[in-house]
Amino acid sequence: MSNVKVVLKKDPAQLRGATFITGFRTIGEVGYLATRHLALKRNMERIGYVVTKYYRDVAFLDEYGLATPFDIFYDNEKHLIVLLNHILPFQREWNDFAASIIKWIKKISINNLILIGALDKRYKMGNENLKWLKTSKCQLSLDYPQLDKQLLMVGPLALFTLHSEIEDLSAIVLLPYADRERTDPAAAATAIEALNKILGLNVSVDELYEEAKRIEEDLQKQMELLQRELARGGADRVYM
Amino acid sequence: MSNVKVVLKKDPAQLRGATFITGFRTIGEVGYLATRHLALKRNMERIGYVVTKYYRDVAFLDEYGLATPFDIFYDNEKHLIVLLNHILPFQREWNDFAASIIKWIKKISINNLILIGALDKRYKMGNENLKWLKTSKCQLSLDYPQLDKQLLMVGPLALFTLHSEIEDLSAIVLLPYADRERTDPAAAATAIEALNKILGLNVSVDELYEEAKRIEEDLQKQMELLQRELARGGADRVYM
Amino acid sequence: MSNVKVVLKKDPAQLRGATFITGFRTIGEVGYLATRHLALKRNMERIGYVVTKYYRDVAFLDEYGLATPFDIFYDNEKHLIVLLNHILPFQREWNDFAASIIKWIKKISINNLILIGALDKRYKMGNENLKWLKTSKCQLSLDYPQLDKQLLMVGPLALFTLHSEIEDLSAIVLLPYADRERTDPAAAATAIEALNKILGLNVSVDELYEEAKRIEEDLQKQMELLQRELARGGADRVYM
Amino acid sequence: MSNVKVVLKKDPAQLRGATFITGFRTIGEVGYLATRHLALKRNMERIGYVVTKYYRDVAFLDEYGLATPFDIFYDNEKHLIVLLNHILPFQREWNDFAASIIKWIKKISINNLILIGALDKRYKMGNENLKWLKTSKCQLSLDYPQLDKQLLMVGPLALFTLHSEIEDLSAIVLLPYADRERTDPAAAATAIEALNKILGLNVSVDELYEEAKRIEEDLQKQMELLQRELARGGADRVYM
Amino acid sequence: MSNVKVVLKKDPAQLRGATFITGFRTIGEVGYLATRHLALKRNMERIGYVVTKYYRDVAFLDEYGLATPFDIFYDNEKHLIVLLNHILPFQREWNDFAASIIKWIKKISINNLILIGALDKRYKMGNENLKWLKTSKCQLSLDYPQLDKQLLMVGPLALFTLHSEIEDLSAIVLLPYADRERTDPAAAATAIEALNKILGLNVSVDELYEEAKRIEEDLQKQMELLQRELARGGADRVYM
């Protein structure tokens, strides 16, 4: 039995045929910055949540209200669903997380996914800003070079890609080159530009730089503090 | 299947529409001090217990009798339920604890929660003693500043807040500024004053200082002793 | 589903209304010494066993035959049940152990428990040899001082006490002052004397001292050896 | 639900009333040497297997063919079942292993067990080569001294003994004195001699010495190599 | 309940009587190199996947498209199934992996297995390049020496062998001598030559050397990088 649950506050029938977009706080925080920027700029409505067994005890007020670790947004005009992952799930949950969400996606008749990650820019060799790949069922062609053969994709996005392939879904994976060491809004902007082309959007990238700076200064510092606390094992005390 | 069980010794139908209040032994022990003080001063009747899988082996005599780790009290006059958490649950249980209790709360038709935590006073910037936040369904407005955007709330209280939001319950979170290093009765008093305003109570805060001192000297010392014992792994011995 | 099972070789209907007594190998081994002494002196018949998931691989011949970790005895004349815990269960099993046994006790209509533990004698302040406490449903009064408020009771006995309270059973907890460092037959004798008064028995305490000495020299040394072996992780070897 | 499964390739009805014999690779490897020797000398037919959740990844060709960790043999003439444990199960599986097999033994109407272990010869005090003990239901008497009271028996054999007692089965435990440091074929020979007397067999002990030497040189060296590999955690690598 | 699932995209009835071939990334990567080479040279069609609970987050583009950790291929002409294991499963999953797949193999009426592993060439004593063994139900005879008695076979292939024996399947295990320290295409070539003889194939071994070199330089370096990352515990961070 899955330990990952999707709580939807909207009639799933209305989501049929939508495009599902997500990304994680991995290299350069690109997947997170891009999806958050998209949800905010498009003024998307939150329509649900993902809840997991190892749900992190982190809550905060974001621009749109009280944020939960995995908020689901919907863009009515363009029929888009964005899963915004404020928190990177625990690694032991990654497979369950990806498998359960892909299963839900399939169940509510969504057939298209766009997954946003990043590549370490130290390995960039040509002029391109972005590489991409797709699952077997995807018919699209993009004007970017594909990921090199034998080059490994890792992290939760890799699992979303694997489960999309296994479930015969059409998924595109966008991998802009990004800086590993810090949040990289330029790389997120590259992803937004690719999304604009693929989906016929016109999302501006201006505030991305302030959002990234804000996240780097405030949220990220606190996350680091939180991580040090966790490492100290402070939490298995009878009192805190 | 949940590993958290609510044992109720009262007809749940009589609890409909009550206000549920809880807090934990986190920063400055504020949530614990305030809820314990409220239960004692209002002479509340114990009506139940929460039992968990990783139930701690800690029992003691409190003012009201034999205390269990998570005692549930009821105030008949003001229709209040207080969950008094003498022990901080194990972190691995936090999500199950919060999710199960919120689910129970919803099932017995309680719609209002007041959650009492604290903020580290080293980060206090203005004159206010307390910040607060609320879930989307909450219509109340308080005469205190709201929690800053992007400032993280952590611990079991964060999970109570998240699950309240997800379950469309109305919850207020009170966060007085408190001293991280010791029990902070002044911060607990601030919380009590806010509760008095919100609930139309008139609970005095005088004995809070003695209660806090008592807890600091006696109970807390023993908890520390207990924690050192646990760290030493003394308990997996064939004899003790 | 519980991982703790009571195997009874007697018709449970015959146990209705009996008094259930138990103790553990904790401070001074008092609970164990007292219950073992009681079972042997009263010539009790073994009527069952408790089996757990993390059942220890320890068997030996005791005075009454082949001993299992948790043997259940019955005294027909005085209608007493003694759970003799030769082994301290693994800490991760304590709650399941206590909860399951209390549930079984309730199911077979036993309403009275006497739990035997100990208090560290370094904290003794007056002249009394023993302190005690009781659950809410217990009507008895003993001629000893009650445990101080806010003084913590820990270990498996604390969990038996908590679950007795939660299940509305009448339980007395006897806590003689004992030496932490070694087996303390004098403290066990104090517990036996209290039991004699409460149950109208006349169990002599003479051999307690030899039994304790025997246990200290033989059994305890081997238990220590066993513990060192366990700590060395000797057991996950393909051969031993 | 048990994680231990008996796979039988013979009609269980034909095993009614058989004697079940087993031993483990513990002190001096006595239990293993004796049972393997018995199965080989009596030319027993393999009739089944035990499979566990933490089944070890070890296969090899023994004299009788491809050996699995826990092979079950049958001796038609003397109506004997031998469980040959080439591998010591993981300690966390011991209780499940013993409990499940005892339960299976009871279910197919086997009532007699002979369990072969060993005692550390450093503690030998008299002239006897072997001590023994039995469960309550066993009527046999052997011409060897019984195990001393309060002397602990440990390891998986202790759990087989406990579960035999709990399930009211008749079990004899043979404990020859053996050398802890190496394989001890002399001790295994003592066990074979005792078996010969109890079961009316005439198994010669000559090749025991070569079998032991072979095991010591070949198999044991590899087991040690394997253990070092395991300790190095080599196995959780993406490639090996 | 198994945590290992076979996802088949082909009617299983068409696989009856096929020969199942697999190998792992163990000594010299022989099993992996040989099976991958076979699948590519025979232009096999991917017909399914194995998904596990501890599914690794690794995806990449191989010659045939987007590779998942455990891809299942089919050769229509020769009625062969190849399970290509790009990733070595976590050791705690090995038994479940082997047992579940053997169970599936049996269920879809496949009776023949060829398992490809390797032997450490430091222990080679004669002129032979390969040793082999087979399960009891296998009638084949090969023109190579069998594995020495008492020589241990370990790793996931050992579990496939054990479960094949237990389930009465016919399995051949090919063990070419290989270099432990690096990928060994020569050993993989020996395995391919043996397969050619057994199955009447004519697979050339030329490109094996480039494939191995490619894997050594690219894929293996990344796997090592990945392993260092895992060891650093980078993945349980709130952000990455």
From TrEMBL, chains A, B, C, D, E:
Organism superkingdom: Archaea
Listed GO MF terms: ligase activity
InterPro entries linked to this entry: Proteasome_assmbl_chaperone_2, PSMG2_sf
Keywords linked to the UniProt accession: Coiled coil, Ligase
Keyword Coiled coil: yes
Pfam families: PAC2 (PF09754)
Residue runs in coiled coils: 205-236
Name of this protein: Carboxylate--amine ligase
Organism of derivation: Saccharolobus caldissimus
